[in-house]
Amino acid sequence: MVFEDESSDDTSSLSYMHSTSSTDGLNHVSFILEDPDYQGLELDLMVFYEKHGKASEGLVAFEGTDTGRRFLACAEPEGRNSGFVEWVDHRWPPTMQNALLKLWAMVEYSKSARVNDNIESALTIHHLIEEKNKLEANYDKSELVADVKAEMAKKDAETQKLNQKYELMVNLTRAQATVIQNLKLKNVKEKELLSEARMKLGSQNAELTNSKEKLTQEKLELKLQVADMLKGKEKHSEEKGQLELQITGLVKGKEKHREEKGRLELQIAELMKGEEKLKQKVKGI
């Protein structure tokens, strides 16, 4: 099925054929969406179209389940333009694709309804003209003036209602395009939040690992000190007292590390819950 955006300019209806580098198995991208954040030559990726050897142009698809997906196309002028090069974004999740299909179905329905309304309006206007001609033929000019004014006022009111209905259909189409764009932005933001949460979780895991290693090292040092203490029983009782004080300090440090470990484990559990909620939100889109 091919979709049109009547509010777009001429460039939005260009057809971009796929090259052999496409991995999605589609035949073409029929329509594009103007996106100020992604347009012009794509110099960062430096993807050159093999036929011309020049930088490709970044565009955004506006068709079916590919709506909002960025892709690269030949940037040559019309006549030498070879069309589609490759996709930049992966396919949307199934929930996103279903939402897009429903929105496009609503667009098709509104377009069909608008066409039917236009046909009915044309027939109504045709009948009005015929009635007007009949009135002009059957009535005297003096009697016709009042009747024509009343009839024209009535028909003007009907025409105004038809125009209001047409404007409502146009606003619905524009609102649907806005919803599609908002869904795309929401999906990108949620992915960024999920990525930040994962990075934070990894950092805290690294800190916990370092704390465990430090605690293990301190335990080893404690064992060595105890062994030295057992071997040096002949040393002065004062040195023994100092060693016992060191052991007491190390034991307190161990308890402190255990408390810190417990706090870190609680933080990790909270982060994992947050990550699960984010996944549920992404699945729900």
TrEMBL record:
Keywords noted in UniProt: Coiled coil
Chain segments annotated as coiled-coil in the UniProt record: 125-225, 254-281
Name assigned to this protein: (bread wheat) hypothetical protein
Organism: Triticum aestivum
